[in-house]
Amino acid sequence: MTKVRYGLPTSPPAISTVGIYFALDNGFFEEEGLEVEVVPYPGSTTATRALLSRDADIVMTGGDSAYLAWQNGAPIKIISSPVSKGTDVLVASGDIQTIADLAGKRFAISDPGSTAEVLGKIILERNDVDPNSLEFVSIGSPPDRIRAMLAGQVDVTAATILILQPILDAIEAGDARVLTSFAEEFPDIPLAYNITRDDVIAEQRDMLVRFLRAEIRGYEWATENPAEAAAIAAKYIPESDPELMVVGMEGLVDLDVYGLDGGIAGDQITKSQEALQSTGRLRAVSEPADVSDPSIVEEALSGG
User: Fold this and answer.
1) CATH of the domain at 175
2) Are 5 and 51 in contact (CB under 8 A)?
3) Within this chain, do residues 281 and 211 fall inside the same structural domain, yes or no?
4) Res 40: pLDDT
5) In terms of domains, do 267 and 222 share one?
6) Considering only 27-31, 75-79, 272-276, which range has the smallest mean pLDDT?
7) Rounded-to-integer distance, Cα 102 and Cα 302, Å
8) Model-level pTM greater than 0.85?
């Protein structure tokens, strides 16, 4: 068995990042000769650091984090997009009516440099709100951020709320409000990429092919069996309601968020960078071949 260390960008896992367990719990990795250890990290920035420090072999990062890391010289490549559409929404306390009302408020994030902070600032700028007027507070996982907001410790956060009953109840009661969604604001930026180091590609390409083949098989299984996938997800997401988890998984399937074709075609890579460049997050748009290696997932999909 080949050991693989895989890092998640949320700790504990969230409904949008728990998908690795669909392949793990069904034995798909084992069938590929892989012994996969999953390590949740508090945010994409921390997960990327773990990859660069060799504490992980592959990590899931936010849709913007991979480009920012590569732009800053990190020897990494995007190898797939397991969640190719955004699932987060910008949700605020009920007294906040519009994005313009966020000036001077407290914004909960997982950690500095996280996707929620980066894309949240872009949304603020688009709505003529100075991001420097807000206080960005590092709190952790989506449930922790939601609890902080409902307790009045912060005013707004970005999270996937499909299975977070407290915020769903608060929205229904008028105590919270969804201001916008990342899918609407950033249609060309996926929720998450799988990235790895250049040396792993050079030295363990066969492992990567087998890993992606098993992982995609897990997502395909979840798409066909959302109720069973919900039962697996509930094992790893603390305090989750099994019935609500089924609703959440069915919602993800309906949104068609999983990158079952690998999710990293050249035009998608270019459009994602152009979207980030237009906001000033990237200095330039790089060639898809410089920042990604789609041949690995293509080989996995072909059965090679």
Assistant:
1) 3.40.190.10
2) no
3) yes
4) 95
5) yes
6) 272-276
7) 48
8) no
